[in-house]
Design a protein that fits this description.
Blueprint: E1 12-18, E2 27-33, H1 53-66, E3 69-75, H2 77-83, H3 85-98, E4 106-110, E5 122-125, H4 133-156, H5 162-165, H6 171-180, H7 195-198
Helix pairs in contact: 1-4, 2-3
């Protein structure tokens, strides 16, 4: 069972990202402070990758309604290309934390690295979205908000199949890039077409 908190009697925010490994679109981060008084639905929380699309979609409005504070932010593809994906991930996370209506006293970060934010103590938790409720909630918000955005972009660029692959580097996505070229939303600093696919 996922833990509610890492620190006792401290306003703690969970932070996670989605879309770091995608070939197009933004990296999206969410920060959230959960209420310790609303525990009934927390048992349904888990790493967003382990939940179905339907469950994530059902949980999102409940999470947003019952959280003490939450915020979702992005770093776009131009920023990713300019400062690299790792720094863009930190930037999106910092923007998400900054957007919280309540200032956290500590941060739980999914992963093994983080750029300190504004002097707030942080703890990096490997696979934290499967260990702490706040990180799991953040992972659900980050993924659902990013997926929603990629579905909007799909309407403009249906040839890439973003409604299905959400811009991850699937074979069909890479084949579409080879056929149609890159869109304005592709990350040009990424390897869009693998070398072995270019050599015929």
């Amino acid at each position: 069972m996922l833990k509610l908190t890492h620190t006792i009697n401290t306003i703690e925010a969970g932070v996670d990202e989605a879309g770091r490994g995608c070939l197009a679109g933004p990296v999206t981060a969410a920060a959230i402070i959960l209420s310790k008084k609303k525990l009934k639905w927390y048992k349904w929380l888990n790493d967003s990758k382990k939940l179905t699309h339907q469950v994530r979609s059902e949980l999102r409005p409940i999470i947003e309604q019952d959280a003490i504070a939450w915020h979702v932010a992005t770093a776009n593809e131009q920023e990713i290309d300019h400062i690299n994906i790792l720094n863009a991930t930190y930037l999106a996370m910092h923007r998400a934390i900054k957007g919280l209506s309540v200032c956290p006293e500590s941060l739980l970060i999914d992963g093994n690295r983080f750029k300190p934010y504004s002097g707030i103590p942080h703890q990096c938790i490997i696979q934290g979205d499967g260990k702490y409720l706040s990180i799991a909630a953040a992972s659900i918000l980050a993924k659902t908000h990013r997926d929603e955005y990629m579905l909007q972009l799909h309407q403009q660029f249906p040839q890439y199949g973003w409604d299905q692959n959400k811009a991850y580097g699937t074979i069909k996505h890479r084949e579409a890039i080879k056929e149609f070229g890159a869109s304005p939303f592709h990350r040009m600093s990424f390897t869009l077409v693998k070398m072995e696919e270019e050599c015929y």
